Amino acid sequence: MQRLYLSIALTTALALTGCSDDDDNNTNTNKTTAPTSTPTEMSMVRVIHASADAPMVTVTANEVDLLTDVDYAMSSGLLSVESATYAIAVNAQLPSGETATVLSADLMAEADMEYTAVAVGSVEGESLDLALIANATSNIAAGYTRVQVLHGTIGVGLVDVYVTELNADISDMAPTLSVDYMDNTDQLEIMAGDYQVRITAADQKDVVYDSGSVTLAAETDYLLTAITNVWSGDSPVALLAALPEGQALIQDKNAGADLRVIHAVADAPAVDVFLDGNDMPAVDMLSFAEVTGYLNVPQGEHTVTVAADADNNVVVIDAAEVILEQGMSYSALAIGSLGDEIMPWILMDSPRRVATEAKLSIAHASFSAGNVDIYLTATDDISNAAPVLSNVPFMVASGVLAVAAGDYVVSVTPHESKDVAIGPLSVSLMAGGIYSVAAVDAAGGGTPLGVILMDDFIAN
């Protein structure tokens, strides 16, 4: 069951009391009363990043930073601001460190109103836009919850949304609401409790998104935005639940997790990979430097067993435990050496493509190499270059590096040395591309060291 609870906000009320120091000998009874100041009128403003291929953004109001480092599927929460007119700008953060204004709008923030600006559309498709929602502030009745829905999934037309009790039959049921791209519904108050949210194409009953059981807490506001699914699973959408503070992602109940396997043990023969003690291999006859496609498996706890393909009685990784989170993507590398130890190394992947940058990931999986420095340069001359990653030990990965599109040379050296051990490797990185590299030993073990190229390195 997915539970959506509003985090508790602690507020402090400051009471201002007037203190008088009366002098019994003071015969002046005239008193001057200070003028009462007019209370400042306040509004609530929220910004949501719902453009799947847009980079992290900074949001300004009247050229002053309001929010920084807002990534896809993130909500700012409701921010209290003085009621006024604001020039809102959404600025994309580029790999160069510069920013570029991609969206702007004037917001007349009136008192006792809540405003939500949702960045939707596509950078690549040149269709970025702001969906603006305004609601009067009001209390929610005791025991009730309040839900509002925004359709923010570009490329998907009119949809029907069913908000029902768990496992209700929708075949003869009218939809709870229907909504088109960039449109939002009114706020709907319903009893707090457990619900199931399902989405179909308009006037259809084939479910393209199913939340499973979701708990909607009492006296809580939920703005549910249907956004593009960039995670695992076949559903085209996920639901982003924006709360007064923060957000929760509600993925399709069948999203599972995506897992691929990489054979990075240079001196090991072909292997079979078994999940959860099954007799049939999930991956059959995987040789050194080979990479599987992603396998969708249920989220949760699993065991991974790796055995020699020629004889499954020769087990090199025995029921290693892994925990896979819903919607996430993972690379499982078999690393080490037959002469020492073979072990699994699980890395979380980042499959979302960003139109303004290339995403580069580098993993140190070479058993024979010590700590290394990694260079990303315009030419193969690194004599005066500083490494992008320094003193990287075995079994450490770079994480995702946001890199400007262009031609580069990748070189790997022993730490504090300019002697290239891997490379120079010329690469062309495209905006919107995903590129992964694993540094490994030579086939059979030892040097010369090499690499396993993955993702768009081998797709192009």
Secondary-structure blueprint of this entry?
Blueprint: E1 2-4, E2 42-49, E3 57-61, E4 64-70, E5 74-75, E6 79-82, E7 85-93, E8 99-108, E9 113-120, E10 129-136, E11 144-151, E12 159-164, E13 177-179, E14 188-191, E15 193-201, E16 207-216, E17 221-228, E18 237-242, E19 247-250, E20 257-263, E21 271-275, E22 283-286, E23 295-297, E24 300-308, E25 315-324, E26 329-336, E27 342-348, E28 358-364, E29 372-377, E30 389-392, E31 401-403, E32 406-414, E33 422-429, E34 434-440, E35 450-455, H1 456-459
Parallel strand pairs: 1-16, 2-9, 11-17, 20-26, 28-34
Antiparallel strand pairs: 2-5, 2-6, 3-4, 3-7, 7-8, 9-10, 11-14, 12-13, 12-15, 15-16, 17-18, 18-19, 20-23, 21-22, 21-24, 24-25, 26-27, 28-31, 29-30, 29-32, 32-33, 34-35
Structure description:
This protein is mainly β and 460 residues long. It folds into four domains: 41-136, Immunoglobulin-like; 138-254, Immunoglobulin-like (Sandwich); 256-349, Immunoglobulin-like, CATH 2.60.40; 352-460, Immunoglobulin-like (Sandwich). 1% of the residues lie in helices and 49% in strands. It is built from one helix and 35 strands. A five-stranded mixed beta sheet has the order 1-16-15-12-13, with no helix packed on it. The model is unreliable at 1-32 (pLDDT under 50).
Can you count the beta strands? 35
Give the helix/strand class: mainly beta
Provide the number of structural domains: 4
Give the strand line-up of the largest sheet: 1-16-15-12-13
Strand content: over 45%
Described by strand count, sense and barrel closure, the largest sheet is: 5 strands, mixed
Helix content: under 10%
What is the CATH third-level topology name of the largest domain? Immunoglobulin-like
Count the DSSP helices.
1
CATH architecture assignment name of the largest domain: Sandwich
| Oligomerization | single chain
Average pLDDT, rounded to a whole number, is 91
CATH C-level of the largest domain:
Mainly Beta
